[in-house]
Amino acid sequence: MSLKTDIEIAREATKKPIQEIGAKLGIPAAELLPYGHDKAKVSQSFIDSVQDRKNGKLILVTAINPTPAGEGKTTTTVGLGDGLTRIGQKACICIREASLGPNFGMKGGAAGGGYAQIVPMEDMNLHFTGDFHAITSAHSLLAAMIDNHIYWGNELEIDTRRVVWRRVVDMNDRALRQITCSLGGVSNGFPREGGFDITVASEVMAILCLATDLADLQRRLGDMIVAYRRDRTPVYCRDIKADGAMTVLLKDAMQPNLVQTLENTPAFVHGGPFANIAHGCNSVIATSTALKLADYVVTEAGFGADLGAEKFMNIKCRKAGLAPDAVVLVATVRAVKMNGGVAKDALGTENVAAVQKGCANLGRHIANLKQFGVPVVVAINHFVSDTEAEIAAVKSFVKGEGADAVLCEHWAKGGAGTEDLARKVVEIAESGMAQFAPLYRDDMPLFDKIERIAKRIYRADEVLANKSIRDQLHQWEQQGYGNLPVCMAKTQYSFSTDPNLRGAPTGHSVPVREVRLSAGAGFVVVICGEIMTMPGLPRVPSAESIRLNAEGQIEGLF
Amino acid sequence: MSLKTDIEIAREATKKPIQEIGAKLGIPAAELLPYGHDKAKVSQSFIDSVQDRKNGKLILVTAINPTPAGEGKTTTTVGLGDGLTRIGQKACICIREASLGPNFGMKGGAAGGGYAQIVPMEDMNLHFTGDFHAITSAHSLLAAMIDNHIYWGNELEIDTRRVVWRRVVDMNDRALRQITCSLGGVSNGFPREGGFDITVASEVMAILCLATDLADLQRRLGDMIVAYRRDRTPVYCRDIKADGAMTVLLKDAMQPNLVQTLENTPAFVHGGPFANIAHGCNSVIATSTALKLADYVVTEAGFGADLGAEKFMNIKCRKAGLAPDAVVLVATVRAVKMNGGVAKDALGTENVAAVQKGCANLGRHIANLKQFGVPVVVAINHFVSDTEAEIAAVKSFVKGEGADAVLCEHWAKGGAGTEDLARKVVEIAESGMAQFAPLYRDDMPLFDKIERIAKRIYRADEVLANKSIRDQLHQWEQQGYGNLPVCMAKTQYSFSTDPNLRGAPTGHSVPVREVRLSAGAGFVVVICGEIMTMPGLPRVPSAESIRLNAEGQIEGLF
């Protein structure tokens, strides 16, 4: 069998006009703002008009800790959406948008893979509907207005050493990580240090993804802290008077983007915050709107369940009043084997013992997810190299944990390969088993929230933080920020802060290196390890081979 | 009479679905890529399909030297398009896109004014169809790839002091004019000086506006000089291998944007290069495509005729093989009076003598335009304060110069106010009087080209340039760039390089401060005076009052 690449499969897709896809969700053509013939934004007026409707069921797709073997979380999200459609459910998928910049370093990502993909793939990896450009513009405007305020007399008495609002660009540009700006004399301002992050790391991105409407968006933008004075009091975006114009720049970007799977299932692809210094989920407005329009909404969270699902539950669901009805935990036999200690180049050989050992990682995620009161089903994303005995070992283990594991073949078969999973998901979602509750209360002290996650999710013995960090947390509590959730930034490769510790480590400590307040997004970022907010390009960037071929098709992007 | 503002008039417009506007030009709906319901891009495949058609007539709208009184060049362009439609011609307008950043400093510009406007005004002043964001991305990618090349070993031996490719952002951000980048240690690269321009100043913008198709675009991008080695040999974009990926980023931006006037005349709004360091015209692809689809294409050039029309003729027409059939030279009685020495606050008082004196400016532009072999008609853009005697004085003067002046009332009446102008334009365009030729041959030495423009257009006595500038021009000639046209960057307020010299100054010199090679765009920029490529924000930026009102409309942008 000669296998087709993702892009070959995507190019063969029979896309329906986006108005037909919208019609599946009951969206009239006039309420869709088309971007070409296969993408559209859903109008704010239509979103407003469906608010009184009853919600459909919300299904979260998450995964075990990622390994180089690949798990296929997005692929399973897409496949499940198609599978639900095939068994007669009105389904909608909600995933994040891709960042432009990184595509020019490594090859760009498809949204899904094989026969479980969302299209149009090229557009989604390039400018799409311009949301990220709008975020970059809004972020850049605030940056320019801060320095302009200082230039014209600095009435707000900003300490130029304590401007915390960096600049952003949607490009991997390490040369901009640390700069000095406003050089060149009187007419260019007061020289100071600064730097750029990649756009997805912007607090504006996190806010766009958490805001419930344009008024909430503007309020949150206004709440952002952009600098401090010499007396350490904060200067807000609202003080700079940038919040109104930023909202105007973001008004279109706030509308969810509608596209489709290869099997024409509707998909909202909207928002894309970092999964470390932010919460890593698609927008609240997309998920909330989808719940009004579909019986089943399938969405995913960033990284593994220890980071992604935890933030989905404790940040997104808490803030947006959402409650998942079931969680699908994705694993591959290969990734379980890597968790069991097998090297990447030995994954092709049957190794049931390693599977059994690696299931410890899977088991801990199942137990963790149950703490949120949500039923779990494991999706085994099938690879051709998986053996019967290995699959049986995973199923047997999962059964022992009080859950079911379902073999899925969406990569090779599309929605036909996930009908069993879809039926299982419907069974548990309809059962009403879910009794969702976040892991901690709003009024718990910030440090206790960190400890709760470290002990209950990471299964660490302790959290290490020096006095200055604890003092900072106390100060924020005194300033009224104590009720915020915490947003953990640690490696996605391990339950611990050591990326090499696979499986289900115990006895470890979680050292907190730094804490940051995202006052507009509404969370305290807790940084445990090195976090890179501006990637660089590799020695041979993929951009060098990206080009249009003679047929006008894009080569080298995938 | 209570006068309505431009935005009030625009909001009352009855826009037709963009497919109907496309149909007026014979574009099938399937060949339009809609952006919402009132904007669309014209597909490359459709553009390819009309290449064998005969061209319509090309009408250039230009103006006398701008004054604070305002001339209304774009308003007249729009009004003439509507007027031509009203008298039964199949007309299409071609103008530039607006830059996003400056709207947050001063209030944003409408495209036209009064009852001669192009809509949707808000979108056109914000993200529109994302073209400028695509240009920013393509520019930024090349910048990142240059520093990345240096970081990974600098195989091309770039002299880091001679990287001439600056960065861009579509925002007025003076703090970025001059920076040091790559600070922070080994992992961030080799510290060097750099800086940002505003996006419209990017050579990528000029190239997008001059390229005839995607292959030409990529070739030109590859030709751009990004840095020099220690031995002063140039390093090209092609050496960095960024041209293919940049073309991919720009493929949608290359397609012209279709919108409409208040009277539903089709308008292509596409591209927006700087009018000083670049040629200041909308894209060649928009103009060329419009000529295949309409009987009359009305377009405009930046600034006054001494800069805008000269570059339109000597750069755009020469490069694209276009030939204007008539030129409309826009003047207002008020602006003529300012050229005659009247202060702005005295413009409301009748002053026929000042009109007669100020006509010298008008007269010189008429004579200049005739040198290109193109017939000229003067459009007097009517203001309510104009008196009969003043209008008569302008008409009488123009008659003496061998041309006609037509009073236009499009601001108050839309196309009904330009029917006379439209009829006059048709008369001279159909007469076949035009015998277009550029002002100089390709093979004339670069310095002689500068002198030709300075003496024939600015009517200067001499061009002053020191030896290093003359040597630089000779060097480029030896490198094979001698056949390029020159792109003059001087003040738009005067024929001379002194912005305060209104009227028709003589006896002046043109000092050349600097020359720059835009090898991809294909011209040598000749800088005579201070040129600002990154504007700043004013003390109270308009952004402070831009916001969404309770109805979701944008306030403060206009």
From TrEMBL, chains A, B:
Q: Does the keyword tRNA processing apply?
A: no
Would I find Membrane among this entry's keywords?
no
Q: What class of enzyme is it?
A: ligase
Reaction catalysed by this enzyme:
(6S)-5,6,7,8-tetrahydrofolate + formate + ATP = (6R)-10-formyltetrahydrofolate + ADP + phosphate
Pathway(s) served: One-carbon metabolism; tetrahydrofolate interconversion
User: One GO MF term, please?
Assistant: formate-tetrahydrofolate ligase activity
Pfam families per UniProt: FTHFS (PF01268)
Give the EC number: 6.3.4.3
- What are the GO BP annotations of this UniProt entry? tetrahydrofolate interconversion
| Xref: PROSITE patterns | FTHFS_1
Similarity comment: family membership: Belongs to the formate--tetrahydrofolate ligase family.
Residues where ATP binds: 67-74
What SUPFAM superfamilies does the database record attribute to this sequence? P-loop containing nucleoside triphosphate hydrolases (SSF52540)
Keywords (alphabetical) are:
ATP-binding, Ligase, Nucleotide-binding, One-carbon metabolism
Checking InterPro entries in the record gives:
Formate_THF_ligase (IPR000559), Formate_THF_ligase_CS (IPR020628), P-loop_NTPase (IPR027417)
* Protein name per UniProt: Formate--tetrahydrofolate ligase
